Amino acid sequence: GSPQNALTVWKDHMVSQGFGYKLGTDLPGEKRGFIPNSGVYDKAYRGSWNGLTVISISIGQGEVFSTPLQMANLAATIANRGYFVTPHIVKDIQDAELDST
């Protein structure tokens, strides 16, 4: 396929993991990060770009911007065997009984 199609598939995977959008936390001022699409490269390179132009974004470099919370949430999703949990910011938890088993 074309680099444009590959970039679209890659972006869809990134978005499905919470990148490029706010995670919906209760933290005020949350940022969304940025995951580029083919329009970004069409504008920057006047339509003359290929797979080598975007190879660095596959490892999070180049035009990819993510927040520390998005990176932490990705690690949590991997640890939860793919289960995505919306992160919440808490000061403390009171009167919680912990199961020690």
Characterize the structure shown.
This is Penicillin-binding transpeptidase domain-containing protein. Pfam families: Transpeptidase. InterPro entries: Beta-lactam/transpept, Beta-lactam/transpept-like, PCN-bd_Tpept. One of its GO terms (molecular function) is peptidoglycan L,D-transpeptidase activity. It contains four helices and no strands. The protein has helices at 3-16, 38-45, 51-54, 68-79. It is elongated, with a radius of gyration of 18 Å. The relative contact order is 0.18.
Q: Give the domain tally.
A: 1
User: Can you give the helix content as a percent range?
Assistant: 25-40%
Strand content: under 5%
What is the subunit arrangement here? single chain
Average predicted confidence as pLDDT: 89
* Class from helix and strand fractions: mainly alpha
Give the helix tally.
Answer: 4
**Which descriptor suits the 3D outline?**
elongated
Please provide the count of β strands. 0
Q: Give the C-alpha Rg.
A: 18 Å
Low-confidence stretches: none
Q: Return the string of H and E elements.
A: HHHH
Largest sheet: none
Determine the N-to-C terminus distance.
52 Å
Brief account:
The chain has four helices and no strands. The chain has helices at 3-16, 38-45, 51-54, 68-79.
SSE order and pairing:
Elements: H1 3-16, H2 38-45, H3 51-54, H4 68-79
Keywords:
101 residues; mainly alpha; elongated
